[in-house]
Amino acid sequence: MTNVFVISDHHFGHKQIIDFESRPFADVDEMNAAMIDKWNAVVGKDDKVYHLGDFSFLNREKTQAIVSRLNGYKFLIMGNHDRGRTRSWWLDVGFHEVSEYPIVYNGFYFLSHEPMYMNKHMPYVNIHGHIHGQKYEGAQYINVSVELWNYEPLLFDTIKEMLAPNEEQ
């Protein structure tokens, strides 16, 4: 069975993010290596990962080297820091699919980089990144930035379990 994961905001190669977000790494090389290991510890070769943006600050060759080491079928939803590069650039470095815009997953979940406006009467859930260690109020928002999930991609079934008490079936 193929598992589906979501994660965002790795910022591979971004030295300053260690201080900005109080990441527990001595330097960028340690951070990159740890995040690759954590990804591969939970994601299998046949699994699918939706990366919700801000993947890498590195050049083409170094980004490609990281993507090639990561398990799974990789779908990038471009974040604000990914937009300096084209959709085809991201495909060339190894992502299987790339979207410049949010997508709707399973007809109910909005997968986006930045949180989207959701009023309390909307029955949908927004799975997003961008705000790193911060959280939006309410069950309609799930922040999958790496800082909140021990730098590991989050199993989509875990999100469904988190929402189960709030869903009327």
TrEMBL record:
Pfam families per UniProt: Metallophos
Residue span, Calcineurin-like phosphoesterase domain: 3-130
Alphabetical list of InterPro entries matching this protein: Calcineurin-like_PHP (IPR004843)
Top-level taxon: Bacteria
Protein name (Swiss-Prot/TrEMBL): Calcineurin-like phosphoesterase domain-containing protein
